Amino acid sequence: MGTTQEQFNVGGMSCSFCAESIKKAYSRTDGVEDVDVSLAHEEVLVQYDDDLLSEVEVKDTLRDLGYTIRDPDKAKRYEQQQAELADGKRRLLLAGGASIVVAALMGWMILVMGRFESSSLAMDLVTLGLALGTMFGPGRYIKEKAYQSLRRGIFNQHVLLEAGGFAGLLGGLLGLFVFPGFPTVHFFAVSVFITTYHILSEYTSLIVRTRASQAVQGLLDLQPDTARRVSDDGDVEEVPVDDLDIGDRVRVKPGENIPVDGEVVEGKSTVDESVATGESIPEEKAEGDEVIGGSVNETGTLLVEVTATGEDAFLNQVAREIEEARAMKPGIIQLADRVLKYFVPGVLTIAGLSFLFWVVAPLAWGAGPNVQRGAFAALAVLVLGYPCALGMATPLALIRGGGKAANRGILMRSGDAFQIFPDVDHIVLDKTGTITVGEPAVSEIVGLNVDEGDVLATAASAEAFSEHPLADAILEFADKQDVDYADPDAFDSVTGKGVRATVGNDDVLVGKPGWFSDEGIDLSNGRDDIERLQGRGLTVSGIVRDGDLIGLIGIGDEIKADATETVQRMRDAGITPVMITGDNERTANAVAEEVGIDRVMADVLPDEKREEIGRLQEAGHRVAMVGDGINDAPALTQADIGIAIGAGTDIAIESADIVLMGDRLGGVMDAYEIGNESYRKTRQNLVTAFAFNGVGVAAATTGLVHPVFAMLTMVLSVSAVLANSFAGQLLSGEGVNTEFALDERTDASVEMVE
């Protein structure tokens, strides 16, 4: 017995107050040692002393707060999320319908009947019914959360919301039964409107989070559900992958995903392992070599012995790394959170004192208790104190920045991307697919006593029937150069070595220089060029015609056109660029030198990438990570800012805070500059919003602010923040691009409604 760690996927979190409430609840629970809450991924990681607490008690804390614990099985979790969406939609339709009816009644009363405060008994009763129906129908769950928070001494948005809701309800009842002059309908309307606003906020948040949650499941879907198990007698049986045991043997045909981690015991093939290494050039696999589940078998048939199953399998390890990184990712306290932490209890205190003042203070000058003025004061304080403008100050600045980013092909998925980016001092770049294009391409042709065009034509003719990716690179380059080549008269692929072909009257070999040595071919005239090309990190294919080495072709991963410029922009901004890759050190250093990166981490596995990011963070650095592959996903999640290349894998994109829609690397620094500008707008908006809330609450304490005017002032405060966020953009003719908020990968709409 001792310290136990449990990780839960939690339903019902919608804003930073939720995360803060969970942390506070656990901090006040005996036996809990540490808790990490990831709002973006709806995950909670709890470390506790199992001598003092049981797992059930740990879970009960979350349930008592009104949150749900989703099933650890990802398929069942998805079903639960869909059910939550259905419930949220139902609540919104009910509350939204009530708000529309109340707004119509108020409009009819003012415009048609010419009344502002007084209303008929029938109208009073109808709005009372709508208020009670909204608060105790679709809004009932908010009350449960508020009660559980209050019971633990936690003041959050649910408590403030319900204080305003019940104050409106109480004011309306006083007007209905005690004080005929009270604006009964307006008091009841407050209860309806603020409840509906909160339900809308949470529903929109849930929509986006549900879409994003499918990423890890998509990763695991790369592994086939079934495999061909081969018995000792040679019989083949198709079985579920989950039924395989270590030591079983499975057969994998060309073009299929390898179903398990294992070791090749028979056969030869090329295997695309970019799922693990990020390396674009496939690996040659033969007897004794290891293969990774989820990688693609390309050319030959393999018999693979299973070496890892279940949670020990590579893809499951990556999925677990991502989930752990999400839960452990350091929380970001935004500017609004710092204000709201003290604002909510402050507003509640002021509302209560205002009511008491106008009930008690008149006695001092010989008047009776002014209950109506006290009720006006308390409700106006709660309405003006509801942190609508404060809550929107940050999101509106982010929407402005997000629209500007969208015009440049950048998707800002998270508020953290704006808040943290100005503090980033290290940007870690994956190599393959990030700094480089991610596909094999001809980099150099060397002719040895023959023309380079002759070398290319001979190689293209010999490779015309090959399905190897290196052959595709040669043929594509020959087509671009308009080189004429013919199909070979005879062709034979030598797995793991190259091809043997007859081109016209010539015998041609194209392949690894080491193979030529085995064939007794003299390589002395090309030795220096082979070493030079390999020193550049290129894969070298030799071309032999009638027994003589006539040329060499260096094939590598082409560096993106804007990579060098982007690295220089990082340096100019005072940011240290770092390359991290699963590729070998020689290739990595060659690419780094060409683009101007001094610090290189090579031969790094996916879990090690995440660890390297963590070490930089532990050293006090703010770190952004740029990547595109499955092997980058844990590191993208661990980094303070994860930036995914949009042409990459879904799991990398869903693990990131920023997505570059395309493969242009320069978008990284564009996003950095937009983040800086948006952060400045955030600070301006917070000052504006707090001025309205602060002045409004102070004025409301006088009891002279009508609830309707309080609501109008709240709308005005939001309008002021809106104008500050977008006026300059509109005047400059940029327009406001909100298309990014509709993309299924973005989290911007969540930020907008929190």
Automatic annotation (TrEMBL):
GO MF annotations, alphabetized: ATP binding; ATP hydrolysis activity; copper ion binding; P-type divalent copper transporter activity
Coarse class of the protein's main subcellular location: membrane
Record-annotated membrane-spanning stretches: 92-114, 120-138, 159-179, 185-203, 342-365, 377-399, 686-705
Pfam families reported for this sequence: E1-E2_ATPase (PF00122), HMA (PF00403), Hydrolase (PF00702)
PANTHER family listed in its UniProt record: ATP7, ISOFORM B, P-TYPE CU(+) TRANSPORTER
Keyword Acyltransferase among record annotations: no
Protein topology in the membrane: Multi-pass membrane protein
Name the record gives this protein: Cation-translocating P-type ATPase
Domain HMA span(s) in chain numbering: 4-70
InterPro entries (alphabetical): ATPase_P-typ_cyto_dom_N (IPR023299), ATPase_P-typ_P_site (IPR018303), ATPase_P-typ_TM_dom_sf (IPR023298), ATPase_P-typ_transduc_dom_A_sf (IPR008250), ATPase_P-type_domA (IPR059000), HAD-like_sf (IPR036412), HAD_sf (IPR023214), HMA_dom (IPR006121)
Keywords assigned by UniProt, alphabetized: ATP-binding, Cell membrane, Membrane, Metal-binding, Nucleotide-binding, Plasmid, Translocase, Transmembrane, Transmembrane helix
Subcellular localization: Cell membrane
Origin superkingdom: Archaea
Family: Belongs to the cation transport ATPase (P-type) (TC 3.A.3) family. Type IB subfamily.
GO cellular component assignments: plasma membrane
Biological-process GO terms, alphabetical: copper ion homeostasis
Family annotation (NCBIfam families): ATPase-IB1_Cu (TIGR01511), ATPase-IB_hvy (TIGR01525), ATPase_P-type (TIGR01494)
CDD domains given in the database record: HMA (cd00371)
Family annotation (SUPFAM superfamilies): Calcium ATPase, transduction domain A, Calcium ATPase, transmembrane domain M, HAD-like, HMA, heavy metal-associated domain
